[in-house]
Every structure is written in structure tokens, then in C-alpha cells.
Specification:
- The protein is about 40% helix and about 20% strand.
- It has 5 helices and 7 strands, in the order ββαβαβαβαβαβ.
- The strands form 2 sheets. Strands 3-2-4-5-6 form a 5-stranded parallel sheet, sandwiched between helices. The protein has a two-stranded antiparallel sheet with strand order 1-7.
- The longest helix is centred in the last third of the chain and has 18 residues, at about 115-135.
- The radius of gyration is 14 Å and the shape is globular.
Length: about 140
């Protein structure tokens, strides 16, 4: 058996001050029937996460009020039972950043500008894995 998330149950929070980055991800993810939320700062993101969990957080490596490391620590402290997958986005994404993110407990890294194939390759399995771990009574099981 495998878990199939109910339509619209997967939620992605995009944390960036760049509206064009959020809009680009929104367009890329719209065929998936996912809820895509936006926060401009980590403070806004924390408030959004207190209102309800999400499967994946995509954050800029450096925000106005936090770094991706701050975000990772907050997620571990504040969401221990339903920690979203953390994906770090950066125009200077390289092997060093990818290695650092993975070694500290993040999920993956996305290069900017976003490439739709890469975005889907990173976010699809991350969201599916989170959804499977957090299946609830409303979930549908498929044999």
C-alpha cells in the first residue's frame, strides 16, 4: 500500500522577498494541485507555519531577518513532529552549499533562476515523503 495525499493537501511555503521568484514557483507548481503559500520574511513564515503545517519550505539562503540556518533551527525546534522539508534557493548554488544544507539536516538546494525540471525533481519527492509520513485519517490508501 502507498499513501496518496488528498487533492490540495500538499502545501509549499515559499519564503522570499522577491515576488517574481514566488510567482515563478507558483506557475511551475500550479499543475500539481498543491497549496503554494508565500512569506516575504522569516517572521511572516513563522506565523504562517503556526496556522498550519506544510510539506516543504523553500527559502532564500539569506532573508531580510534570517539565514537558511536560522530557518532550519526554528523548524526543528517549533515543528518537531511535522518538520517540513527545507529547500534552500540561491543564485550561487554550488556543491559547497548543497553539502552544507544536507549535512545540517536540510532537504535540498535549488539554483536560481528556477528551472522547472529541477524544481519538480526536488519538490515532488520531498512533498510526497512528508505527506506519507504525516498521513492522517482523511488519507486514501491505494493497494
Amino acid at each position: 500500500m502507498r499513501f496518496v495525499a488528498p487533492p490540495g493537501s500538499t502545501s509549499v511555503l515559499v519564503v522570499t522577498s522577491r515576488l517574481e521568484d514566488y510567482q515563478q514557483l507558483l506557475v511551475m507548481l500550479s499543475p500539481r494541485d498543491w497549496q503554494v503559500r508565500h512569506a516575504k520574511t522569516w517572521r511572516e513564515a513563522g506565523e504562517a507555519l503556526r496556522r498550519g503545517p506544510c510539506s516543504v519550505v523553500v527559502t532564500d539562503s539569506q532573508l531580510e531577518d534570517a539565514s537558511w540556518r536560522d530557518v532550519l533551527g526554528w523548524l526543528a525546534d517549533e515543528c518537531p513532529e511535522h518538520t517540513p522539508r527545507l529547500v534552500v534557493a540561491d543564485a550561487a548554488a554550488d556543491d559547497y552549499l548543497w553539502s552544507e544544507v544536507l549535512n545540517l539536516g536540510g532537504y535540498n538546494v535549488l539554483a536560481k533562476p528556477f528551472d522547472e525540471t529541477e524544481v519538480c525533481w526536488v519538490l515532488d519527492p520531498g512533498a510526497l515523503a512528508w505527506d506519507e509520513e504525516h498521513a492522517n485519517a482523511d488519507a486514501v490508501l491505494v493497494h
